[in-house]
Amino acid sequence: MTFIETVAPDEAAGPAAEIYAADREAFGRLPNFTRAFSLLPEVYAAWKGLNGAIKATMELRRYELATVAAARRLRSSYCALAHGSILADRFLGADAVRAAVADPRAAGLDDADVAVMELADKVVADATTVTQADVDRLRASGLTDGEILEVILAAAARCFFSKVLDATGALPDSAYAELDPALRDALTVGRPIASS
Question: pTM to 2 decimals?
Answer without folding.
Answer: 0.95
